[in-house]
Amino acid sequence: MKKIILVFAFSLLLINCKTATKKEKIIGLIAEKAMVVSAREEASKIGSAILQKGGNAYDAMIATHLALAVAYPVAGNIAGGGFMVYRNADGTKGTLDFREKAPLAAHKDMYLDSLGNVIEGRSTFGANAVGVPGSIAGIFEVYQKFGTLPFKDLIQPAIDLARNGITITKNQSEGLSDAKKAFQAVNNYETIFEKDWKKGDVFKQEELAQTLERIRDFGKDGFYKGETANFLVNYITELGGIITHEDLEKYRAVWRNPITFAYKNHTITTMPLPSSGGICLAQILKSIEPYDVSKYEHNSTKYVQLITEAERRSYADRAHYLGDVDFVKVPVDSLIDLNYINKRMRNFSWDKATPSSEVSQGNILGYESDQTTHYSIVDQFGNAVSVTTTLNTGYGSKVVVKGAGFILNNEMDDFSSKPGVPNVYGLVGTKANAIAAEKRMLSSMTPTIVEKDGKLKMVVGTPGGSTIITSVLQNILNVIEYDMGMQESVDKARFHHQWLPDIIRMEPNGFDKITKTKLESLGYYIYEKNSLIIGKVDAILVLPNGKLEGGADKRGDDAAAGF
Ligand code: DON
Description:
Glutamine Phosphoribosylpyrophosphate, subunit 1, domain 1; seven-stranded antiparallel sheet; alpha+beta; binds 6-diazenyl-5-OXO-L-norleucine
C-alpha cells in the first residue's frame, strides 16, 4: 500500500512538474480555425474579420495587404511588390510573383558616373530608384483566381483606416523621425510623413484613401491607368525619373511553379526566381540534412558553424548565378541537385572556418529589419497563404506621389549596379543580376509553407533583406529539429552569414560568450553591431490537435488575430 501511495505521489509530482514547465513555455495566440499574423494589429484584425465573414485566405490576403499599406507605410504598400506562396486545402500549391520590374528606359549602367563608379544614393533615394510597382497587379491576379467576396468589401476597411487614421506606435514615431530628412530631400513639397509624429497621434491619409477608392471603383486600372497613373507619372517626371505610362500599362504579375523539396520527412514549398530565397533555402537545408542537427544544442557553436558554412556556400552561388530567369539562364536544377550540394560541403571541417574566397572591406550599412513585411494566413477551410511584400528599404525611395498619397519603392537597388559592388544589404552580384529594361531584380524574400505527411504544418516568412533566407531557415529548424512552438521559435535569437562579407552577424545578447569565443577561435568573425534585430518573423503553426498557434515577432509591433 505504501508503495502505491508513493508511486501515486510521484506521479502527481511529475504531472505538476509537467504543468509547471508547460506554463513556462512561451505560447503565441491560439485559434481554433483561422488566423492572420502581420506587422500591425489593425491589419491582422481586418484580415481575420474578412475570414470571419466567410471569406477565404485569398480574400483575407487582399484585405491584409491593403490594410498594411495604410497602417504600416514603412513597408506595406500599393506601389511596391512581393511574392505569395499558397497551399490550398486540397494540397495544390503555387506562387505568384508581383515583383517590381525595371522601367523600359532602364539600362545596365544607369547608376554609374562617367568614370564607371556607382553614384551613391541614386539606386536607393528618389525617383530614379523606383521599379515599376507590382502589388496592385498581384492583388487583382489573386482576386481573379481565388477571391470570393465582393472586392469592395475587401478594400473598404483600408479606405476607412486611411480616412479615419491609424494610431502611431513608438516604433513608427522613431522610424518616421529617422526618415524625415530623406522625405524632405527627395520631395518638392511637404509630405504628410515628415511632420513630427508622436506615439499616440492619429495619422490620417486622405489622398491615399482617395487612391484606394479609385482602385475600388476601377480595379487594376484605378492604379495603372487614369488619374492615379497620371499622378504617379507626372510626379516621377517632375523629379527626373524614367517611369512612363507604358511601363505601368505593361506590368503583369506572374504565376510561377514553386520550389518544392523534402527535408527530413517534411515538404517545403517556397519561392522560385526572381527570388533567390527558394533556391538558397533548398541548398542550405539540403547541405545540413545529412547531419543529426537536433543533437547539437540550439544556437551552440556546432549549430552556428554548420549553418554558417552551408550559408556561405549558398550565398556565393547566389551572387554568381542568380537573376531573373526570364532574362538570364540560371542552372536551377544543378544548383539544388543533391550531388552538387554534397560536393560543395565536402571541404567543410569542424576544426576551422572555411574562409570566403574574398573578404569585402566595405562598411556594412546599418539597417533594421522592419523595412519589408511578411504576413501569414490560414483560413477556416484549410487554405494557407504566405506573402512577403516590400518597398525595399524603409519608406522605399521616400518619394510620396503628390496628390495620391502613396510611397514609391526603391527596389532598383536590388539589382547589381556594378559587378562586385555591394548593395544596401552588402550583397554582391554579377551579370546575372545586372539591370535591363523590364527585368525583375533579384530578391531574397522567402515566403514559405511547410507540410508533414501531406498536411499543412507551418506558414512562415520575414523581412530582413539578405537575412530573410536565414531567418526563415532558422524558424524551420526550430520547429522541425527542436520541436519548438511557433512563438517560442520566433522569439529565439538569430544569426546570419552571407559569404561576403565574411562575418557572422548575430543579434546582440542572443548568444552566450563561450559560444562566441569558441567560434572566434575556429576562425569565424562575429559581428553584433548594426543588426540590432535580424528579421521580423510572422508565422503560423498547425498544432497536433489541429489548432493554430501564431508567432508574431515581438521585435516589432506585430500581432496575430484569429478565431
Ligand atoms: O527583395 C528583397 O530581397 C529586398 N528588397 C527585401 C528588403 C527587406 O527585406 C528590407 N527589410 N529589412
